[in-house]
Amino acid sequence: LVCVAMLLPLALLVANAFKSPQELLQWPPTLFPRSPTLDNITGVVGETPLLRWVLNSLAFALLSTAAIVATSAVSGYVFGKFRNRGIDAIFAVILATAIVPFEVYMIPLYFNVQELGLMNTLPGLLIGYLVMSFGIFLIRQNVIATIPDELIEAARVDGAGEFWIFWKVVLPLLRGPLGALAVLAFFQAWTAFAWPLIIATTKDAYTIEVGLALFQTGFTVDLGRLSAAATIVLVPSITLFALLRRNFVQGVAGGGLKE
């Protein structure tokens, strides 16, 4: 029953994308469109740069995901298997940043991007989404829980270098956690609104979340086209989760190797 209650607004959103303006105003609302139409979808695709916004968001989200997965994998392995006071102190500082809201340092970061001349560019967007403290914590915990020290020591005894150990031994055992982190990182960038809003200064540089806000003004809401655009936006997120759902569950649950 809880799942049905949570999925009902999503089903209503998709249904609204295929309703006529008259049916959208009916009360009580209909769950399934009585006279389905593609006018909302064709209108939003043909009259707005929606596809450009989707491509901007995809590039932003994929590059951010790749950066977060890479930095979290390296950092999580280092913090999990190399033990000394200095490393533990650095990890404590990184973990403490997880409680600091992005809005706290958004303005100083904005001035830095402005001074670097990266306004209205993809690198300017990425600066705020290259590292995730929770991702480092997630990978560290999985490294400690699932990769025995004896396995790494055995590789060292065989003459393997640290990079080879990380690439050939550690990464294959972290496929589940890294898949879960990839889903979380993608959703974080895909749904970002405040940072792209202040970095992008032209419509061509908007991400999809910023573009969706244009369908709502101070006095009116184009509900049909907004629903159609939001339905299109759901496709990449649902596709990614469907492909990595097993990795997501495995990574969050912390399952792994047994000694």
Number of strands: 0
Series of H and E elements? HHHHHHHHHHHHHH
| Low-confidence sequence ranges | 255-259
Content-based structural category: mainly alpha
N-to-C terminal Cα separation, in Å?
Answer: 41 Å
**Mean pLDDT, nearest integer?**
84
Query: Globular, elongated, flat, extended or rod-shaped: what is the shape?
Result: elongated
Q: What portion of residues is helical?
A: over 70%
Structure in words:
- By secondary structure, this protein is an all-alpha fold.
- The protein contains 14 helices and no strands.
- It has helices at residues 2-16, 21-24, 39-47, 50-81, 85-96, 102-115, 122-126, 133-146, 149-157, 162-173, 175-190, 194-199, 208-213, 223-253.
- The longest helix is centred in the first third of the chain and has 32 residues, at 50-81.
- The radius of gyration is 22 Å and the shape is elongated.
- The chain starts with a helix and ends in a 6-residue tail after the last helix.
- 27% of the residues are buried.
- Residues 255-259 have low confidence and may be disordered.
Compact description:
With 259 residues, the protein is mainly α. It has helices at 2-16, 21-24, 39-47, 50-81, 85-96, 102-115, 122-126, 133-146, 149-157, 162-173, 175-190, 194-199, 208-213, 223-253.
Write the SSE topology.
Blueprint: H1 2-16, H2 21-24, H3 39-47, H4 50-81, H5 85-96, H6 102-115, H7 122-126, H8 133-146, H9 149-157, H10 162-173, H11 175-190, H12 194-199, H13 208-213, H14 223-253
Helix pairs in contact: 1-14, 3-14, 4-8, 4-11, 5-8, 8-11, 9-10, 11-14
